[in-house]
From TrEMBL, chain A:
PROSITE patterns: BIOTINYL_LIPOYL, PSBD. It comes from the Bacteria. Keywords: Acyltransferase, Lipoyl, Transferase. GO terms for cellular component: cytoplasm. It comes from Sedimentibacter hydroxybenzoicus DSM 7310. Residues 2-77 form the Lipoyl-binding domain. Its cofactor is (R)-lipoate. This is Dihydrolipoamide acetyltransferase component of pyruvate dehydrogenase complex.
From TrEMBL, chain B:
The keyword Oxidoreductase applies. This is Alpha-ketoacid dehydrogenase subunit beta. It comes from the Bacteria. The keyword Transmembrane helix does not apply. Residues 4-178 form the Transketolase-like pyrimidine-binding domain. Keywords: Oxidoreductase, Thiamine pyrophosphate.
């Protein structure tokens, strides 16, 4: 039975998706569970798995193309099945389709492909070996089996863990590498690495590539979305950034007190979590800052979904902590770390990314003292957090050294007036400098 | 510690209990005249007179009368001569003895013991050689014990007699003559509690009754290859000791079950299924069951020999899993 491969709907708000990669080619045999292609949508990447078996007869949407949900992407069918009906129905017979001719694949070849697939698909391992590999985060496909009938045993997993990968190199090569700060693992060689290999590598890496063609890349997937959104936000919003310096003495003291208590429960407590707690308290009061502006409609949210900007390998993601105003500090710490972890391992749900009402972004770890964050529309405000640094400040006419931090608040001036922004920021300062106010 | 035979151990248990409780009576075929086919009742008639009764050759009558006597307040011990003959009295066993306490809402109990000599002997053939304990794993309402040595034989028999519920006591015919250390004085072996007979770290061997001898042989063979087997003597089949088995499997990550009874649908099948259900993630090898082939016990001595458990083959089978 011919089967249409459609652009899946991955989450309530998904309207279109980009095919970023195909794992199969036309003419390939696929089984249930085989990876078909990769879809990127609103910054999330998902691998799509075959739920039927057959031959990939047609790939309609190529890697890099974006199509709406439910659009035809390809067709899986039997070898000689007529699929022109499916193609015609979906593409309106715009052109005479070049359907992959698979009739030349003899039965023998098909069987061979199938056999290799079957062998490589399921890894034979005992339940205990699987449990261990899961606990230790070891990929079973890399473990050598020594058990009965080629089954991976627990001891194989343990041996794999104990065997650290060793790089073979001559003593002279090792010495040269360490003197020149060269990482031996970066030198690709199956054999023992010699001094000449290190020397060759060093020369190669020093040579300028001015006469080589420059690498270009089409902005697809996450990068494309980020660039479109940022541009739209920038053009549509009259943004003002307010900076205010806060004294972190008490905040630091509070964190130092709480840190071991949280650590005992396996939780990491950061200044972000504590600032989020402050925001959870204040944002319900400052309804203009916890609002959305779309066209002429202002929506005052009766909840705080606080977005946290997370830098990931390919760009930036802003998952939000839902219902922040009702959460304890512990819950905030737990949920925030979960979202950050999921963002970095590409495990976020689309719903984690939607319906934010306010955002924070912290680049203090890079030594920043001030910046102008861009609002994540339709939100109307974003709070930038900078580094904490010891500074001389005048207190009661005397110069003392205090740990200071800048807050950079950007607001949408079309909804939030300057005085309101300043008042909001100063109240944040009050809570941070006197965190005992958090108790009410 | 003194050493006595399995048979003597059961005699001690009977005599001690009968001296303490006049309600204990014994019924069976040829037990007064002959002292039991394996001598396991020798001397009891002299001391306890008419409390030891020879019956007509009717297992139905023996079990039926015992159930009635138990309901009337006595504590009967019924001897089946051969476990194979239990089939004759099956309605009395599984519909009456096992069910009456439940049918009458717990108004009465059935405190009785069925003694059933089982297992292969020398060319006793298909109707006098069977091990049928697994049948009774599927009957709620009774308990089943299977001692493997003289000490447990005594302690379990005393527990069975003292218990207010019906207990089937399977005693292996070959084990009767086996000697072993038995403590002086009164002691009990609790029903439902297995024993770790040998501690080990690499594989759990669960066994009971005569197959325990094989378990020890297998463990010795495995030790030659550096494999340290843990042996669990189940002692009770119903209710079997799940905790001890699970605890051991979680430690050794391997499980084998050895019994003389037919492998298919045997006690080993139940234990294997239970461990697979509860602890499959702890298993580092398939569970292995060793039992008799699915065929009636042959009369021919060479065939009977081939039918028996073979320690070398078992050890080899287990070694291949490492």
């Amino acid at each position: 039975m011919a089967r249409e491969i459609l652009m899946p709907k991955l989450g309530l708000t998904m309207a279109e998706g980009t095919v970023t990669k195909w794992f199969v080619e036309e003419g390939n045999n696929v089984k249930v569970g085989d990876k078909l292609f990769e879809v990127e949508t609103d910054k999330l990447t998902n691998e799509i798995i075959a739920d039927t078996e057959g031959i990939v007869r047609k790939i309609v949407v190529q890697a890099g193309e974006t199509v709406p949900v439910k659009a035809l992407i390809g067709v899986i069918a039997d070898k000689n099945e007529d699929i022109s009906g499916i193609i015609g129905k979906n593409l309106g017979n715009k052109e005479e389709e070049k359907v992959a001719d698979t009739s030349y694949i003899s039965d023998v070849e098909v069987n061979e492909i199938k056999n290799t697939k079957e062998n490589s698909d399921y890894i034979l391992a005992t339940p205990y070996a699987k449990k261990l590999s899961y606990e230790k985060g070891i990929d079973l496909s890399e473990v050598e089996a020594t058990g009965y009938s080629g089954v991976i045993l627990a001891k194989d997993v343990e041996r794999y863990q104990n065997d650290k990968p060793r790089i073979k190199a001559t003593p002279a090569a090792k010495k040269m590498a360490s003197e020149n700060n060269i990482d031996l693992s970066a030198i690709e060689k199956n054999d023992r690495i010699k001094k000449s290999d290190v020397a060759g590598y060093a020369t190669k890496s020093e040579k300028s590539a001015y006469d080589q063609p420059t690498e270009t890349e089409k902005a697809v997937g996450m990068r494309k979305i980020i660039s479109e959104r940022m541009r739209a936000n920038w053009i549509a919003t009259p943004m003002v950034t307010f900076n205010m310096e806060v004294d972190m003495t008490e905040f630091i003291r509070l964190r130092e007190k709480l840190k071991p208590i949280y650590a005992a429960e396996g939780l990491k407590l950061t200044y972000n979590h504590m600032i989020m707690k402050v925001l959870g308290k204040l944002l319900m009061k400052y309804r203009h800052l916890n609002a959305s502006l779309e066209d002429d409609t202002i929506t005052y949210h009766n909840y705080v979904n606080l977005g946290v900007a997370v830098d990931v390998e390919k760009g930036l993601m802003v998952p939000n902590v839902k219902g922040l105003e009702t959460m304890t500090l512990k819950e905030i710490a737990e949920e925030t770390e979960r979202l950050i972890e999921n963002a970095r391992t590409n495990k976020l749900n689309p719903d984690d990314l939607f319906n934010g009402t306010f955002t924070i972004t912290n680049i203090g770890m890079f030594g920043m003292d001030s910046f102008t964050p861009i609002i994540n529309r339709p939100e109307v405000a974003i709070l930038g957090i900078n580094r904490i640094v010891d500074k001389p400040v005048a207190i009661d006419k005397r110069v003392v050294v205090r740990p200071m931090m800048n807050l950079s608040l950007t607001t949408d001036h079309s909804l939030v007036d300057g005085a309101l922004s300043a008042k909001f920021l100063s109240e944040i300062k009050e809570f941070i400098e006197n965190p005992y106010l958090l108790i009410d | 510690m003194r050493e006595i035979t399995f048979s003597q151990a059961t005699l001690e248990a009977m005599a001690e209990e009968m001296r303490l409780d006049e309600d204990i009576i014994v019924m069976g075929e040829d037990i007064v005249r002959q002292g039991g086919i394996f001598g396991q009742f020798k001397g009891l008639p002299a001391e306890f007179g008419e409390r030891i009764m020879d019956t007509p050759i009717s297992e139905t009558a023996i079990i039926g009368a015992s159930v009635g006597a138990a309901l009337a307040g006595l504590r009967p011990v019924a001897d089946m001569h051969y476990a194979d003959f239990l089939g004759v009295a099956m309605d009395e066993v599984f519909n009456q003895m096992a069910k009456i306490r439940y049918m009458f809402g717990g108004q009465t109990t059935v405190p009785m013991v069925i003694r059933a000599p089982d297992g292969l002997s020398l060319s006793a053939a298909a109707q006098h050689s069977q091990s049928i304990e697994a049948w009774f794993m599927n009957i709620p309402g009774l308990m089943v014990v299977t001692p493997s040595n003289p000490a447990d034989a005594k302690g379990l028999l005393k527990s069975a007699i003292r218990d207010n519920n019906p207990v089937i006591y399977f005693e292996n015919k070959i084990l009767y003559k086996e000697k072993g250390p038995v403590p002086d004085g009164e002691y009990f072996v609790p029903i439902g509690k297995a024993k770790v007979a040998k501690e080990g770290s690499d594989i759990t061997i669960v066994s009971y009754s005569i197959a325990m001898k094989k378990a020890y042989e297998v463990a010795d063979l495995l030790a030659k290859d550096g494999i340290n087997a843990e042996i669990i003597d189940l002692r009770t089949i119903v209710p079997y000791d799940k905790e001890t088995i699970l605890e051991s499997v979680k430690k050794t990550h391997r499980l084998a079950i050895i019994h003389e009874a037919v492998k298919q649908g045997g006690v080993g099948s139940e234990i294997a299924a239970y461990v697979a259900e509860e602890a499959v993630e702890y298993l580092d090898a398939p569970i292995k069951r060793f039992g008799a082939p699915f065929t009636p016990v042959p009369f021919s001595p060479p065939l009977e020999n081939a039918y028996r458990l073979n320690s070398e083959k078992i050890a080899k089978g287990l070694k291949d899993l490492f």
